[in-house]
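Q: I have 231 residues here and want to know how they pack in 3D. Can you give me a structure?
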Amino acid sequence: MNVGLVIVSHSAQLAAGVVELAAQMARDVVLVPAGGMDDGGIGTSLEKVMAALGQADSGAGAVVLTDLGSAVMTAESALEFLGNPENILLADAPLVEGAIAAAVTAQGGASLAAVRKAAETALNPGAEKIPDLASAAGGRAAPVPSGAVSATVTLINPLGLHARPAAVLAGELGAMDVDIEINGVDAQSVMMLMTLGAGQGTELSMTATGPDAERAVALVTAEVGNGFGEL
């Protein structure tokens, strides 16, 4: 079972769009939109949110993401009506980026707390990663730690490391016991991989440590080698 997601928005179209986008990267995750008023107008509906909460939790819990302040209030009210269940958590996160990061993390089988954390840190992965972004953009790899497994591969698929392959890598690597960076960013974060803007022909330098280091590097090498199935 995977943690589910509820997307609460003032717009039914926006909520559905976020679900559609995130679903492309997390096919086994239940994503439920709760957008707009009951009559189709702009706003949030307590009834819609409560119904969505019931649909999203398939046993592993659910994380709720919202767009604007009053949507947060509606979500909080729904949780209060349900007795503030421990298996449903409200995330303080950007709607689109948070939903994508949370969905990819949930697809990997992560815990409820880990899925919420992924949503909340989607745009703030940690200051320790930020200084490496400049070197990543220039294609310069960071020094390899002692005992680490490293490799360099070249993107061959036409669109490079766009959203779908980034989600594939982040999701599969996130399920491993490994610390791995690609061009200086956390390879277990779909949002960080997408910041690389790595197109066809870009070299990806990997450095991995931990029990699954060799397996993680082999995975990335294989996925890049087959063009993420896009050739």
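Q: Anything worth noting?
A: The radius of gyration is 19 Å. The CA atoms of residues 99 and 119 lie 6 Å apart.
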